[in-house]
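Late entry, written up from scratch paper. The run itself happened at the end of the previous shift, but nothing got recorded in the book at the time, so transcribing now.
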Amino acid sequence: MPTLILVRHGQSQWNLENRFTGWWDVDLTEKGVSEAKAAGELLKEKGVLPTVAFTSYQTRAIKTLHYALEYCGRLWIPETKDWRLNERHYGGLTGLDKQETRDRHGDEQVHIWRRSFDVPPPEMEAGSDYDLGKDPRYAGIPIPSTESLKLTIERVLPYWESDILPVLASGETVIISAHGNSLRALVKHLSGISDEDITGLEIPTGQPIVYEFDDNMQPGERYYLKDA
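Output as recorded:
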């Protein structure tokens, strides 16, 4: 049956430093590498072996995918990278320490920016330290200046429908290595989670989530592979 595996990248350097990351390209920590390798070992142990892979343009997700595939013996499978699987863009918060931001703007405001469904953070100013306008990977791509979760969903789901779902429907076992918010978008859609409830859903790093689809391409209940 068609099977979907979702993996949030392993711990990144800015996860460790408690900074808003968004589209900025940050590498994995040693712990993040270990999480990615463990995800691959778990896939192999449980016999859930990917046949096609999708990931974002961001190093932490790409490396997580490659470590996971290496450790389940699947580095050779076809792989597609697309910016629409990138993390939510945190706009002007990018690079800021989360606690310092709370101290400056107040807990309530930061909570709204982080967890509101449709309120985006302040926009990133052109030419700022974290402006990606000159990054060659985004040449010709409409880089957002900020995104809410709602806006993130509005770019992830069309890509899911047009590029990933048809591959899945052909009977493949698809792995998507992506980010907390791009994966929230998919989980919200597949599990029918409300706008209010999705903002509270935490997706842990390096823990494969599995959906199995029936003959009508309806997903079953999601589960963590470690619990299977």
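Helices lie at 13-17, 30-46, 59-71, 98-105, 107-115, 149-169, 180-191, 195-198.
(Scratch paper discarded after transcription.)
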